[in-house]
Structures are given as C-alpha cells and as structure tokens.
Design brief:
With 456 residues, the chain is α/β, with parallel strands linked by helices. The chain has 20 helices and 8 strands. It folds into 3 domains: 83 residues, Four Helix Bundle (Hemerythrin (Met), subunit A) (Up-down Bundle), CATH 1.20.120; 195 residues, Rossmann fold (3-Layer(aba) Sandwich), CATH 3.40.50; 145 residues, Orthogonal Bundle (434 Repressor (Amino-terminal Domain)).
Length: 456
Amino acid sequence: MAFEGLSEKLGAAFKKLRAKGKLKESDVKEAMREVRLALLEADVNYKVVKDFVATVTERSIGAEVLESLTPAQHVIKIVNDELTALMGETNSRINFASKIPTVIMMCGLQGSGKTTHSAKLARMFKEQGKRPLLVACDVYRPAAVEQLQVVGGRVNTPVFEMGTDHNPVEIAQKAVAHAKDYGNDIVILDTAGRLHIDEQLMEELKNIKGTVVPDEILLVIDSMVGQDAVNVAKSFDEALGIDGVILTKLDGDTRGGAALSVRAVTGKPIKFVGTGEKLEDLEPFYPDRMASRILGMGDVLTLIEKAQVQVDEKQALQLAQKMKENTFDLNDLLEQMKQIRKMGPLGQIMNMIPGLAGKLKEEDAQQGEMQLQKIEAMICSMTPGEREKPSVINPSRKRRIAAGSGNKVEDVNRLLRQFEQMQKLMKMMGGKGGGKGKRRKMPPMPPQMMPPGFPM
C-alpha cells in the first residue's frame, strides 16, 4: 500500500506530540528527528529531507505554535503544508495545443510501463470526449507494436503503426499527419526505452522531439525503484527537457520516496500516478491530497470522484430508497458490493476515508477482499427466491449453498445472521425518519457486513 511505512512512522511521531499538553522547543526537535528518519527510510532524497526538516522545524518552534492551545495540531498542519509544497502545491495539467492535434511524447526506461500508461492516458482522454490516437514508435522491443495494439483495443483507441522496418522519427511524423487528416485531437507517441540511459536512446528521442515538436513530454517512471527514479528523471530532463512525470506502481510502493523527491530535485511536476494494473487505474496527481493520505487524514475528494465515475447513480439511489423502506434484500446487497468493488481494492478505498487512513494493514485488506468474495459466492449460490426472502433458507438449503460456494454451513449462518441484524438496524433507522429528503450518491456498506480486520 502506498506510503504505508512512512505513514506509520509519521503517525507514531505525531502521537507523541499529541500526548503533550504544552510543547517545548526540545519536543519539536525530537519529533523532527523521527520525521527525518522516517523520510530517509522512505528513500526520500537526502538533500530534500534536510531542507524539509529544517523548514518545518523553523516554522514549528515559533511562538505562535508553541503558545497555541493545540500546538501538536499546528505542527501537523505545518508538515502537511510543507509536504504539499514539496510535491508541487497544485495539480499540473496537460498542456493542450491551440490547434489539433496535441502531441504527447511518452518516454522512459524499458519496463517502466510506457505502453500500458499510454493506453491509460488514451482511456482517460476518451472519457473526456476526445479522440486520441496511439502511435507505435518502439521498433526495437519484441512484440512492442502488438502490445500497444492489444491495450489500444481494450480502451477502444486506434493505433497507428508502420511495423518495425521504419525509423521511429518517420513513424511519428506520419502519425501526426494521419491525425490531422482523420480528426484525432490527441496523438500519444509510445517511444522505445532501454535498460539504462544511453546516448543512442537520447539521440533518437531528441530527433523525434525536433521533428514533431511535442506539446507535452511525459516521463514514465517506476516508483518502486526509489532514488533511482529521481536520478532517471534528472537525466531525462537534462537531455530532453521533460514537462512532467507519470509515476507507476504507486499502489505497491510502501516507501514513497520517488513521489516526495522528483518534484524537488527536477523542478518538474508529477502529473499522473498509476495506482494498479487495470487500465482505469490512473489518477491525476494532487499534491495536497497525497500529503493528506501520507499523514493518515484520508482523501475524500478522490474517493468522491471515484464514486462519481464508477457508481451508477440511479442504481445507488434505488438501493438507498430500499434501505430506507426496509425492502433491501440479498440481491441488493450483492449489487451494492459490486458497486463498491468497482471503485478499487478495499485497502485503497479505506485509506481515503479520514480516521481510517493508514489503519487497515495490507494483510487485513487482503483478508477483507477474501471475505467479500466469500459473501458474494454464497449469495450467488442461492436461488432468486432465497435472495429475496432469506427466511425460507432451512438447514438443507444452507448445506446446498455452503457446498455450492465452497464454504461451511457456519459461514452461511453467519451471513444470514448479520443480514438479519442489518435489516433490524434499517428498520430502526427508517422508523426514525433517518435520511428523509436526502439524496445519497452511494449507500454505505452496513457495519455488520464489514470484513474482519476492518477498523470500526
């Protein structure tokens, strides 16, 4: 889970500060030593850590903070502000050309995820009503053209290719001309990478840049490589002049050093982050939201945006109405679970909720996912009549459902018992007029149905 180690260590440091009613300068300095160690262990660039801690310490030992009624909260706010500043203050957007097409050149080392993230970008642009064109400029890596065609097909985006016998510069040039003729307003060039930075790679990229003059050069970096990611960014920027960075595999980077160092070292913004293997797992990078996640304060705005994109509003309102009227059955529960799972892995969703962020461990999240799958399997093993009226499920039916879903009869009993408790809760809430006149985008997962390990 992204920043898991860093969040834990910062949380522990701030817990000690909160325990003190009045802060002294020595308390702040002790906390900053722990922050410094936490950042270094997260593989953040040493100079970045040094400057960051110095700035936070200077701001935190001011009279306004130390004499405040809630000094610990002041210090945490300062850390939040400085983390946000470190990562770039605001969300940096794509530089769209005044005339079509806008040309985006993707570059990076081999294995960083250029081809997949080219398709992810194309998918995002299509959702915005644009007509992207993917271009296969990698003529060296075996099956690179075929890979782009496969992911392009999955996001329903055309792929321009001329095989592997043509020069990448010529391919890029003809692709831009093709886009003008066929009305594609965005051209995404998937260029070749190498296992390491070399003169030949940079020369080719410079030639493509000089010929098609891209409006945006995006460097794709694997965040898992830590400090090396920063060195790669610096080298590409010095040789090519990049406009922004896409950090991939952020969901698996428990340290987060690259995300905290790239902007400070190169001066170039992180524009997008890859948060999973699926083609929809691409998010714009918001420094303030990321800082909030790191400090365990959640990220409600991103959660709302995910819900707006993934959740069927009409269906969600119908489910909310059924909960209010106490006509919610197991079919509805199954549908609700599917809608929640569309938004992403359980751990990722929980880490966006204030108060829960950072509290759900990776193993708990995995166990929770398994529990949701078990519940789904049991409901799918029931007949339509059993889902609508669970009270008809007698012992022989329970044995059949357990066998059909690969579970035990005790699991079926637990599910039915929890669902019965949930219905009673809904009846009580309905009787009190709860939620009257309010429209909800997404009915919440009832507490009784939460998986083991879920922090309540």
